[in-house]
Design a protein that fits this description.
about 290 residues, alpha/beta, Helicase, Ruva Protein, domain 3, Rossmann fold, 2 domains, five-stranded parallel sheet, 5 strands
């Protein structure tokens, strides 16, 4: 039997998989998601969301996809690893993933593929009134050549709207790449930076995931001092919160306890630090927020 079944859960509450059902919408995540959806509806072109490692960008992208699936006027694709060595690989990936037909007599040269892509965007966006959206996770991996391709694609437009909607989610170094390409930066319609949670959001996220996992007991599973320890250790980074909570629940079973308290968290955190398997920069930032 899985550990979460033993504790009275229907599902694993602290999985690190980007499951939209377990996505806690903090004020910042909700603001980012709402604004991206508005920009997509208006077909403004380019949205950029930045965030440090573990701030929930990937889960935000999955939540966005869940929202788009509920709309029949969107055609979308997500790229999880945009590490393309050259333009041909990038364009070929777009052609394949958007299922674009290329003339069998064409040479499949870059110009042919670009023309096919432009025709596809015009057919879907103008003739069929669809919104074609490309979501790129880990966008900090985009090289200068790939950003130039995206800039060109953003030039495909009517007098009223962009034919391709582009959503970039990346780590903070993406910012320096974009600002060094002025004619790409000028095309950013919406920009946002995700920050770590505050204490209340950390508490709400833990409680939200516990409820989502089907926990129905009246007993409080994490004490207030335990949540304080989690917040101090994680500095409000969602992924770090999830991982330490998962470990805490395993400790409950191993030590035959019923409540995660501050003492137990101090023991777990002490072992984490002693092992060296932790982000030292989070500890250095302890008093930065």
């Amino acid at each position: 039997m899985s550990y979460f079944k033993v504790l009275g859960f229907d599902k694993e509450p602290f999985s690190t998989s980007p499951d939209p059902e377990f996505f806690y919408l903090s004020k910042e995540h909700e603001a980012a998601l709402t604004n991206i959806l508005i920009e997509l509806r208006l077909k403004r072109g380019l949205c950029v969301t930045l965030g440090d490692i573990g701030t929930g960008k990937t889960t935000l992208s999955r939540k966005l996809i869940q929202e788009l699936k509920e709309r029949d006027d969107f055609i979308f694709h997500i790229i999880l690893d945009p590490s393309f060595n050259n333009e041909q690989l990038f364009i070929t990936s777009l052609i394949r993933n958007f299922d674009i037909n290329i003339d069998s007599n064409a040479s499949h040269a870059i110009l042919d593929m670009r023309e096919a892509l432009e025709k596809f965007l015009f057919q879907k966006g103008v003739t069929e009134n669809k919104t074609v959206t490309l979501i790129i996770d880990e966008a900090q991996k985009l090289n200068e050549a790939s950003l130039e391709i995206l800039r060109v694609l953003l030039n495909y437009e009517t007098n009223k709207f962009k034919l391709l909607q582009l959503v970039l989610l990346g780590q903070l170094e993406l910012h320096s790449k974009i600002v060094n390409i002025p004619n790409f930066l000028d095309r950013v319609s919406f920009k946002y930076t995700l920050n770590p949670f505050d204490f209340n959001e950390t508490k709400e996220m833990i409680e939200f995931r516990i409820r989502q996992a089907g926990y129905k007991a009246n007993m409080q599973l994490f004490s207030e001092d335990a949540i304080e320890e989690i917040y101090q250790y994680s500095r409000g980074y969602p992924r770090k919160i999830i991982m330490i909570c998962h470990k805490a629940l395993k400790y409950l079973i191993l030590k035959n306890k019923f409540v995660v308290n501050g003492e137990l968290l101090k023991e777990i955190i002490g072992e984490e630090i002693k092992s060296g398997w932790h982000r030292k920069d989070l500890l250095l930032q302890k008093n930065s927020y």
